[in-house]
Amino acid sequence: MSSESEISRRRFLRQASALTAVSAFSSIWLPSKSFASLGGKTVAANEKVNLACCGIGNRGGEIIRELYNTGLANIVALCDVDMGAPHTQKTLQMFPNVPRFQDFRKMFDKMGNQIDAITVGVPDHSHFPITMMAMALGKHVYVEKPMARTFNEVELMMKAQRKYKVVTQMGNQGHSEANYFQFKAWKEAGIIKDVTAITAHMNSARRWHGWDTNIKKFPDAQPIPSTLDWDTWLESVQHHDYNKDFVNGQWRCWFDFGMGALGDWGAHILDTAHEFLNLGLPYEINMLRADGHNAFFYPQSSTISYKFPKRANMPPVEITWYDGVNNVPQVPEGYGKSELDPNIPPASNGKIQPTTLNPGKIIYSKDLIFKGGSHGSTLSIIPEEKAKEMESKLPQVPQSPSNHYKNFLLACKGLEKTRSPFNIAGPLSQVFCLGVIAQRLNTKLLFDRAKKQITNNKLANALLVGPPPRKGWEQYYKI
Prior knowledge:
This protein is of the alpha/beta class. It contains 14 helices and 15 strands. Helix 5 (about 125-135) packs parallel to helix 6 (about 150-165) and helix 9 packs antiparallel against helix 13 (about 420-440).
């Protein structure tokens, strides 16, 4: 390690230790007088939910349209750091008379009393401040997956939800579809039991594949587009000079901004297994493969082993995650074809490219093997002969009463409970945060589940919190 790198490492450890002393895993402090603990207001059954939308292009725009199409929401405010960008225009044209903002703080200052709930469809690093401010103001929150970029941010979001008692939903939309109800029914009927291993895989091409992995620094500064509020885009992350490879989906490539393939697709592949097998947090995370590892962006291929302990009468489980085009896991005999569910949306960089194995999982139990896809895709028993033998024993699976978006809005009205609230989605998101730390450092981590600390690596433990927030954004983290 170079002397410059060692100095930076020591400085980071000092800063992170100081931040840990004031923020780690305890009650939050939000100092602004406007941050009164209001509690989430239940919207009357005969009224629509007044929805403010943070992030209105790309995935953010899709969320807005899905929620609006339920017929249960009024769109009362639109917020995006770049209202002039081409990808925002479809949403702006749909709601031409709705007030517009580039800074969510100004939106809340001006319209807070007109807002019941918000959507957060912005880059991973931006989820936390928006969500924390909204909850403290008593606003219900629909936030895209993963919940946040760091383990500590997720921890604080869960604590804030308990404190402010608002409705929350993470946007892993398959968690309200057939995948959810089938896994729940099969687990309760004893069809899924004694699971010991899960293979999870996402082998499509990603945005950073093919980049120069000998990178020594971030990309050079470029002129900031005149329509973009770059300072607000950065939010609490330490300053980076603008570059086109940080925005419009490219943020997912970088450790400083996004969560890579694991954070992007993990919540669509492992959500039901994590919830219904009561996995919680792992005690060991180990990098088994990290092709093209570097200090700035995600590897070209990753294999990550997670080990979870015995829970009640359920045996220990090892989950092995595979990403990378040429990092396809072996499948068991009798696996059959790897079908791509047409309901699975494309990857953020376009269509899912055909591979030998489409995104999904293989679940190994004592007596049965299951294969499944991503999002709302259901499981099947393999091989086919075993599936036919089990057919008469399978329970009836109920239909979903509401999709993920309608479920959130009905919960805001007190008519349903959300299926992916922060107490469910938070530990799942933290599993991915731990995996990202292992990817970043390319090492094995030992994790104390009770103390929520990494015990074998000081730098990795500091990364649970991450660098201190940028000046002006401390209020979202302090006790």
